[in-house]
Amino acid sequence: MIYSMTGYASAVREFAYGVLNLELRSVNHRYLDLQFRLPDDLRSVEPMLRELLAAQLTRGKIECRVTFNSASAGPRTPQFNEPLLRQLVELNTRVRAALPGAENLAVADVLRWPGMLGAETLPVDELKAACRELLASVLEQFTAARAREGEKLAQLLLERAAAMEQLIGSIVPRLPQVIAGYQERLSARLKEAIGAGDDERIRQEVAVFATKIDVDEELSRLTAHVAELKHALAEGGGVGKKLDFLMQELNREANTLASKSVDLTVTQAALELKLLVEQMREQIQNIE
């Protein structure tokens, strides 16, 4: 199965004391780039989340966002975090001893200090276990969404691969006619240039140029690369980098075909091949 690198999924778990929400979203990236946005109380859960994500994902810029909203149970009486307050007082004294001109901490600064107002202690262990369960559920949705989009991308690529095969098939029967016509025109020009007396030299020159315009090898490689593209799509898995490499090879062969062409139809087909390659390359950037 082919997976897109773009996806989104989320899940929610409700508790008596609040609501836990976990979201996953991703965009394309050359490697696996994991980013986390977690509440301070749940920072310790990041290694576990990172391990679970890395075990199932191979490429993409992944953002994992966890939020917790406490349940409102009417007005509460704020309580100071006494140990933290003592630490701030001690630090304030030490700083003013080193910098006599420094200002004292204002009351507003103390009240805004993270963790200063005594909120109820969250059951972190329970929330950690819930995060693991939520991530497993979200990953299932997330993988399914990426698979659905990957299937659409694979279908688009197969359609363009079929168009490439049709173009290549239209060129092959023309090659003998193209080469024969070019040889005839070249032979006539050479006879005008060097005279009719040296037929052997004319034949040698025609043979040399005929070799230079022969694109049979390029067409064979194009056919092989398209076949490998279809095989990779059928095989599935993390084939994004392989497909990107095949696009480079297809583009190289299409360029060579265009540069060696001495026939308008072949030139137009080569340009259409390049356009199809570019269209496929854009889609492949989203494949894992």
Walk me through the structure.
With 288 residues, the chain is of the alpha+beta class. The chain folds into three domains: 7-74 and 124-146, Ribosomal Protein S5, domain 2 (2-Layer Sandwich); 82-112; 148-284, Up-down Bundle (Butyryl-CoA Dehydrogenase, subunit A, domain 3), CATH 1.20.140. The protein has nine helices and four strands; from the N terminus they run βββαβαααααααα. Strands 1-2-4-3 form a four-stranded mixed beta sheet, covered by helices on one side. Strand 3 (32-37), helix 1 (46-56) and strand 4 (60-70) form a beta-alpha-beta unit. Helix 7 packs antiparallel against helix 8 (240-260).
List the SSEs and their pairings.
Elements: E1 7-15, E2 18-27, E3 32-37, H1 46-56, E4 60-70, H2 82-98, H3 107-112, H4 124-171, H5 175-194, H6 199-213, H7 216-235, H8 240-260, H9 264-284
Parallel strand pairs: 3-4
Antiparallel strand pairs: 1-2, 2-4
Quick structural overview:
The chain is an alpha+beta fold and 288 residues long. 62% of the residues lie in helices and 12% in strands. The protein has a four-stranded mixed beta sheet, with helices on one face.
The residue-averaged pLDDT reads 84
Low-confidence stretches: none
Q: What is the succession of H and E elements?
A: EEEHEHHHHHHHH
Classified by CATH, the class of the largest domain is Mainly Alpha
Major sheet details:
4 strands, mixed
Using DSSP, what is the number of strands?
4
